[in-house]
Amino acid sequence: MNLALWLQRAATAFPDRVAVCLGEQPVWTYGEWADQAARLARGLRESLGLQPGERVALFMRNQPEYLLWLYAAWWAGLAVVPVNARLHPEELHYVLQDTGAALLVLSDDLAPEVQRALGERLPRHLLADGPEALALQQAAPLPLTPREGGDLAWLFYTSGTTGRPKGVMLTHRNLRVMTACYFSDVHAAQAEDSSVYCAPLSHGAGMYHLPFVVAVARHVIPASGGFEPAELVQLSRVHGRVCGFFVPTMVKRLAEHLAGTGEPAEGFLTLVYGGGPMYLADIEKALAVMGPRFAQIYGQGETPMCATALAKPLLADRAHPDWAARAASVGLPQTAVEIRVADEQGEALPPGEIGEVLVRGDSVMAGYWRNPEASAAALRGGWLWTGDMGALDAQGYLTLKDRSKDLVISGGSNIYPREVEEVLLRHPQVAEVACVGVPDAEWGEILVACVVGSAAEAELDALCLAAIARFKRPKRYVFLSELPKNAYGKVLKTTLRHQLKENPA
Ligand code: AMP
């Protein structure tokens, strides 16, 4: 089944319903959106000669046309390659080459730099809403191109906190299953909801537009194209029932903003967070300020948005004796997948033991694009090996300890940095913290805490001593004005390790 069928179905049944807004202003109804997508699809196939299965790369900021191009490509049987708009042109070039994209679609504000930097190295390209794109939409609508569940829909380049980006092959079936899990495990989207896109559409936030097409709900692109707390609060007032996907730092900033202004949070319905660890202190504060409006998901590009979920009622149940442990977990397996915490042979470990998190189910990628070695390493014995370390509890809640390579082994003892970070963050003068292992002659590796804040070392040490085993205490503290982060706001621990190696204390 082609994912674009959902748009066709919505447009047939509810053609006049507002579908896409830019800020407060409606841009397209469902009827208009589907009609333009079908016309553009014909332009792609007949004027540009693209064939089903070919790739269209999107290097675009968040703008309404993003949603148009996704559907035009799918309607025509093409696969999309949404590239993070904050990448360097050379990184974009790598993706274009790797995918062999037949067409590149650019936002007008991103095009000049890309054209200047890559010039002749660019494939055929056009502006998302330029004259060429408009001319392509003059053709008659193309009938929807049938697709099998296993056909490629979305080539997702992993964010690259580790190594060289790889193209995760996501099929129409993968994203269909992800969408069904959104309804069953995260939030039962309804027609009155407004899905707001503050995080890049090239990533999970973009995939999470799908349930809102199924629900025939409203899609809202902030006029800023990104995350501005004041703007988001205003949009929640205008549209109401705001849903969306946020990385933990955005949740923190939104809650701080509302705590500062004292404005109500009633325009927000379900804010889903994930993509990186949410610290207990932060979600506690967000719940206190905004009320029970949060759900968490854990996934990765290789099983998009779809491994575990911590649903709203579970996060909201503050009276439950296990609330703190649950809120610090990533929740329960989503409906369509199996989760196993395994030893190195892939054997299931008993509850409480830490091992690698494996995922099996129809959301799991078909493999990495033209990379059989990496595919064979990640997909073994019928399971996706996520590279994340975690433990299940007796009720089936999964708690992530860290990425496996982040594990620090000091004097033969394993230290999971996440555990130490949680403790250090309890100090009121610690804004952010990242713990990494650096080589050490005596211990093999030592744990170094990189702290943004002004807490005294002795106080941090005392906090650790009061909460975790002695050997887990950082052996060194480094105070920084900020932590290095990638375009998605994830802390770049590899960069931190390099910095520490170059500047040993
Ligand atoms: P990406 O493939 O770029 O989306 O990165 C996925 C990785 O982000 C996962 O493998 C985890 O290490 C991390 N991650 C995703 N969701 C969560 C979450 N809810 N809590 C902690 N880490 C997460």
Description:
34% of the residues lie in helices and 27% in strands. The termini are far apart. The strands form 6 sheets. It has a 9-stranded mixed sheet, with helices on both faces. Strands 16, 17, 19, 20 and 21 form a 5-stranded antiparallel sheet that branches. The chain is of the alpha/beta class and 505 residues long. It is built from 18 helices and 26 strands. Helix 1 (4-13) packs across helix 2 and helix 2 crosses helix 3 (64-75). Strand 3 (55-59), helix 3 (64-75) and strand 4 (79-82) form a beta-alpha-beta unit. Among the domains are: 1-7 and 26-147, Rossmann fold, CATH 3.40.50.980; 407-502, GMP Synthetase, Chain A, domain 3 (2-Layer Sandwich), CATH 3.30.300. The chain is globular. Adenosine monophosphate binds next to strand 13, strand 20 and strand 21. The site of adenosine monophosphate has 15 residues, from strand 13, strand 20 and strand 21.
> What's the story with the biggest beta sheet?
9 strands, mixed
**Radius of gyration computed on alpha carbons:** 23 Å
The count of strands amounts to: 26
Rounded to the nearest angstrom, the distance between the terminal CA atoms is 58 Å
CATH class call of the domain at 1-7 and 26-147:
Alpha Beta
Going across the biggest sheet, name each strand in turn: 2-1-10-9-11-12-13-14-15
In CATH, the architecture of the domain at 1-7 and 26-147 is 3-Layer(aba) Sandwich
Please identify the structural class as seen in this structure.
alpha/beta
